[in-house]
Amino acid sequence: MSYIDGFVLAVPNANKQKFIDYANTFDTLFMEFGALRVIECWGDDVPDGKVTDFRKAVQATADETVVFSWIEWPDKATRDAGMKKMMDDPRMDPSKNPMPLDGKRMIYGGFSPVVDFAAKG
Questions:
Q1: What number of other Cβ atoms are within 10 A of residue 101's Cβ?
Q2: SS3 25
Q3: What is the DSSP track for 102-117?
Q4: Contact predicate 108/5, CB 8 Å
Q5: CB neighbours of 104 closer than 8 A, spacing ≥ 6?
Q6: Are 40 and 20 in contact (CB under 8 A)?
Q7: Burial code of 67-84, b = ≥16 C-beta within 10 A, e = fewer?
Q8: Which 3 state secondary structure label does DSSP give 30?
Q9: Structural contact between residues 56 and 46, judged by C-beta atoms closer than 8 angstroms
Q10: CA atoms within 13 A on the CB side of 20
Q11: Residues linked to residue 26 through DSSP beta bridges, in sequence order
Q12: pTM of the model
C-alpha cells in the first residue's frame, strides 16, 4: 500500500507566488526520487476552531494562509530512500533556495493509509 507524507504550513499572503514557484521547483525533486503524486493546497475555507484548528497548529498570523500538502509514495521504503536523496541533494541548500515561509512552524509526518477509497472510472 502507498505511504503518505503530510504537511501543514503558514505562508505569508504576500509570498503566495514565491511559494508556488518554490513548490514547483522542489516537488519535481520528490517526483524524481520516487513520489507518485505531490499536492499543494492554498487555504480557501479554513475556519477558526473553538479548541484547535489548522491556523492555531502552525501559529498562522492574520497575514498568512494555511497550506495543506501531501506527497504520495508507492511505499514506505521508496519514501525513506527518496527523502534521504532529497536531504542529500545540493539543490535543497536553503542558502541558495530559501523557503518563502517560517519552516519552524511547519507540521509534518509520515502516514500509513488504513482506508483508501477511490472513484471508479
A1: 19
A2: helix
A3: -GGG-EEEEE--S---
A4: yes
A5: none
A6: yes
A7: bbbbbbbeeeebbeebbe
A8: helix
A9: no
A10: 7
A11: none
A12: 0.91
Q: What are the chain's domains?
A: 3-111 (3.30.70.100)
CB distance 42 to 7 below 8 Å: no
Place of cell 499536492: 39
Grid coordinates representing 54? 489548522
DSSP state letter for 114: S
Residue whose C-alpha cell reads 505531490 in the numeric block? 38
| Rounded Cα–Cα distance for residues 24 and 69 (Å) | 13
Q: Alpha helix (H) ranges present in the chain?
A: 16-32, 54-57, 76-88
Rounded to whole angstroms, how far apart are CA atoms 33 and 46?
Answer: 31
pLDDT in tens, 52-105: 999 999 999 999 999 999 999 999 999 999 999 999 988 888 888 888 888 899
User: Taking the chain, what is the end-to-end CA distance rounded to the nearest angstrom?
Assistant: 20
